[in-house]
Amino acid sequence: MCLSISEFWLLSTGLPLVSATFGPVANLLSICALVETWRVSASNDDDRVSDPPWALAINAVSLAFGIAANISLLLTFLRRVPYRFSQPFTVVAWFLSAALLIVLLIAYARSPDIKPQKGIVWSQSYYYAIISAALYFSICLMLAFNLWGAYVRAHYPPGLPGLTAPQRSLMLQSFVYMCYLGGGAAVFARLEHWSFLDAIYWADCTMLTVGLGDFSPHTTTGRVLIVPYSWGGIVTIGLVIAGVRGLVIEKGKGKLSLRIFRRGKRLVARAVRKRWAPDIHGSQRGVQAVFECDDRREVGVGELQRRDPDAGDLPIVHDAEGRVEVIERKARWWTQWMGLSAAFVAYLLLWLGGAAVFYASEAEQKWTYWDALYFTNIALLTIGYGDLYPRSQGGKPFFVVWSLLAVPTVTVLISSMQDTILSVLRRAMRWVATKTDGVPHAEGTEEEAKECDPNIENGQFHPDGGMIEGSLDAQDPEEASNR
Q1: Which residues pair with residue 426 across a beta bridge?
Q2: What average pLDDT does range 64-93 have in this prediction?
Q3: Has residue 5 got a pLDDT over 70?
Q4: What pLDDT band is residue 4 in, cutting at 50, 70 and 90?
Q5: Are the CB atoms for 470 and 455 separated by under 8 Å?
Q6: C or N terminus of the chain, fewer CB within 10 Å?
């Protein structure tokens, strides 16, 4: 069974990258689930109900498995441990982490002696445990699918071969960001006499520049330290967002390159086989060069002309040049708008879905759904008026996880809108120039081509409309699955 481009990229590259990005997040949330009790007084957050020793032990073991799995995955990404050993261990460790937390959550919910009674509610740690268990299980499933594709279906070789160096560093960036957030929260919790979980919520608002204003440093030491801490946090989250955006763009570039090559190659093959076969004669060698390619290099019309100058007079070359230009332009347009559409859909889901959760969690504040929509929009755009903010035990943990997803999503959306609008403006300017001076202008420039395929270098771009030649970073999934 052959995979499509999207399926191949998802199994071999996308799922491991998402797992690596959210692994450190799951570990930090698991720490939040352990540091404080799972039950608290409804009227006073400082009045806590202690947890049974066996529950603390299970929680700690779950965290230990999660940290071990995260370290194993990090070493796999950095190529320090063989994939065939580390990846199965990572999947099993993530599964055990999720299973232990799920069992503990079920035990707390069903035991009449543990379940909160009158005046007692579930604490922030309890909700952090729910989110952490969901992330652990999701990561386990994603990595299991990656193993299945490598060993059971043999769609791609084991060892995460499709990952580039920037992609492999994305997990390290996420790990550094979570350590920075958690370490800063621990320091400011001690300085400002906050609980660790409130400090996590404050650090998240600070590093994402949301600034709701319900927590702020009041000590002199805290106000001095916030200057370097906030700058370091903004730089750190900026690197993570840049890595995520690069991942989205690189996926689009790979799909674009493969689409251009496949459609162009089919065009040439059809022309050679049917229409111009009697006219080839001495240029048969040059036309045949189109199909002489290895795993890392694909040959187009420009390469055909370079190998056989006589091929330039063939109808196939002139016709292919014009049609490949159209193919290239349409493929670039499709990839660009699809990326913008995907970012916009993700934004809507986070905005509308997040508002629904906050509407339910902040019922004691008597929020309407419109209040929740207003709050999530202000938070998404990092405006942070501070007139509304989550106060419930479940609202703060959800806000931390939601904001870690939402703010980078909005950043990617704005960047995609910028690229699309600039592209539309360039096309409009070319159209106006064509209409005013009567001279047709090229539909693409070398810089635009480089945006679509970073492998286009000097001498490989043909402004007269020829097919782009060069190596494709993305491996053809059909060839990989056949191998």
Answers
A1: none
A2: 92
A3: no
A4: low
A5: yes
A6: N
Distance in angstroms (rounded) separating the CA atoms of residues 77 and 48: 41
Mean pLDDT of the chain: 77
Contact 474, 8 (CB under 8 A): no
Please give the full DSSP string across 45-58, using - where no structure is assigned.
Answer: TT-EEPPPHHHHHH
CB 320, CB 299: distance < 8 Å: no
pLDDT digits (tens, 9 = 90+) for 149-199: 888 888 888 888 767 777 778 788 888 999 999 999 999 999 999 999 999
Q: Kindly state the tokens that stand for 135.
A: 């992330």
Comparing 245 with 53, the larger pLDDT belongs to 53
Lowest mean pLDDT among 64-78, 278-292, 416-430: 278-292
Structure tokens belonging to residue 153: 């279906």
At residue 77, what is the residue type? F
- Rounded Cα–Cα distance for residues 213 and 197 (Å): 16
Tell me the backbone φ, ψ of residue 40, rounded to 5 degrees: -150, 155
* Alpha-carbon span 427 to 28, nearest angstrom: 47
Measured between alpha carbons, how far is 265 from 259 in angstroms, rounded to an integer?
A: 10
* Contact criterion met (CB below 8 Å) for 72 and 54: no
Distance CA 427, CA 404 (A): 36
Burial (0-12, 13-18, 19+ Cβ within 10 Å), 293 = middle
User: How do the residues of the chain divide into helix, strand and coil, expressed in percent and rounded to 5?
Assistant: 75, 5, 25
d(CA 179, CA 82) in angstroms, rounded, equals 26
Per DSSP, the three-state class of 238 is helix
* One-character DSSP codes across 315-364: HHHHHHHHHHHHHHHHHHHHHHHHHHHHHHHHHHHHHHHHHHHHHHHTGG
Q: What would the mean pLDDT of 306-310 be, rounded to a whole number? A: 45
pLDDT of amino acid 213? 86
Encode burial over 313-330: b for 16+ CB neighbours within 10 A, e otherwise: ebebbebbbebbbebbbe
386: left (phi over 0), alpha (psi -120 to 50) or beta: left
Locate 336 and state its tokens.
Answer: 């660009």
